[in-house]
Amino acid sequence: MFRKTLMAAAAVFALGGTANAATEITWWHAMDGALGDVVNQITADFNASQDEYHLVAVNKGGYEDTMTAGIAAFRAKNQPNIIQIFDAGAATIINAKGAVKPVQDLMESNGVKFDINDYIPGVRYFYADSDGKMIGMPFNSSTPLLYFNKDALAKAGVDVPKTWQEFEEIAPKLKEAGFEGLAESHSPWIFFENFMSRHNLQMATANNGYDSTDVELLYNNDALKDHWKHVKEWKDAGYFGYYGRAWGANQDAFLQQKAAMWLGSSGSFGGLKKSAQFEFGTSTLPYWEGVGDAPKSTFIGGASLFAFSGHSAEEDAGVAKFFEFLTKPETQFYWHKETGYVPITTAAYELAKKEGYYNESPDAEVGIQQLSEEGGEWTKGYRLGFYVQIREVIYREVDKMMNGEATIDQAFATIEEEGNALLKRFHDTYSN
């Protein structure tokens, strides 16, 4: 820490004191490890690109820690200029009246060109309001992908499944070859939220929560329950490996070559390239042929950057300047290459193609292609309060389903009952 302080001080002197004269902008985020290193590099690049503003990026722990710290700071009137909020927490900060300034308003009022159509389709409206105005700036955006072990599939003599019907055909052959067919991380995100999007099924009332906080879940439906009945059958037959709710435990089953395939995040691509001791590929999230309006595009996970209210016009101008820098094709391409997260704009995607990135890493393009597939009425995302807690209910009930402690119908009835109680409590809290 002392060495870092000395380095920071030396950087100030090297700039001839410009950092002291610059308007300071603070950014609280949840990126650590290699991702934190990339955030720090983007911060340094922004600071080097101009001398009006000095951005200070501060890691505040994980997603929930960062959101909790931001809420406490806002209440104490000591909030940062920018805060990273993950998908499930977006409703909380958006519905807190006066807490944030819509990013679209912020940029336009500071002379920064903004067109929501510049963003790729699956990113465009997740952090927007019901009228399509972007409230949060999409940052680390990802989508669920199917990762597959090329040697395992070759050994079993099977192809990558595009549908769940195809998975059921190849799963016995993968088992015969010595593999579980599939493991999966983050059931609420992949097998609930994006299941609904992939099949263009409504996830909640009130336009998936975008139009009102007075909302109820629609998870307790035949299509989703039937999917989970199949998942339980796959687990019992040895076709599906369930390693609990921990993301890493399910990913490790793939890395250790127990499972031939793994459903995870497109944002995991960069890390897997470094850690996998075998050749793997990526494919799109499978769907049930004949269910809903499948296949439709998925929507993003990850997190967004929000501009807290309560700061000077000069600081707000600095935030707009940083968001303009962040969305430059070159910045987004760098973020995409280093992390595996998708570039959020069409221009950045085109730059990646122009630079030949997908010729050398074709699997890195699959997530963007999936987010750019044809959308439907229910593919833009959701806006549900206390959804962090609702995900906890889902995790708990998935455990019970998989361990035989509850039937599919019992688990979904509980998810509906407890989830709707949380949504009502959120409505009662934020509608006044």
Percent in helix: 40-55%
SS elements, strand count: 11
Distance between the termini: 45 Å
Indicate the radius of gyration in whole angstroms: 22 Å
Number of helices: 21
What does the average pLDDT come to? 93
The biggest beta sheet reads:
6 strands, mixed
Class inferred from helices and paired strands: alpha/beta
- Which regions contain 5 or more consecutive residues with pLDDT less than 50? 1-19
Could you say which overall geometry the principal axes of the C-alpha atoms support? Answer: globular
Residue share in β-strands: 5-15%
Describe the structure.
- With 432 residues, the protein is an alpha/beta fold.
- Helices cover 50% and strands 13% of the residues.
- The chain contains 21 helices and eleven strands.
- The chain has helices at 2-14, 18-21, 33-49, 63-75, 90-95, 103-109, 121-124, 150-156, 164-176, 187-198, 205-208, 222-237, 247-255, 269-275, 313-326, 329-339, 346-354, 357-360, 366-371, 387-403, 408-430, and strands spanning 23-29, 53-59, 82-86, 100-101, 137-142, 144-149, 182-184, 240-241, 261-265, 280-283, 301-308.
- Strands 1, 2, 3, 4, 5 and 11 form a six-stranded mixed beta sheet that branches. The chain has a five-stranded mixed beta sheet with strand order 8-7-9-6-10.
- α3 links the parallel β1 and β2.
- α16 crosses α17 and α20 (387-403) runs antiparallel to α21 (408-430).
- Residues 1-19 have low confidence and may be disordered.
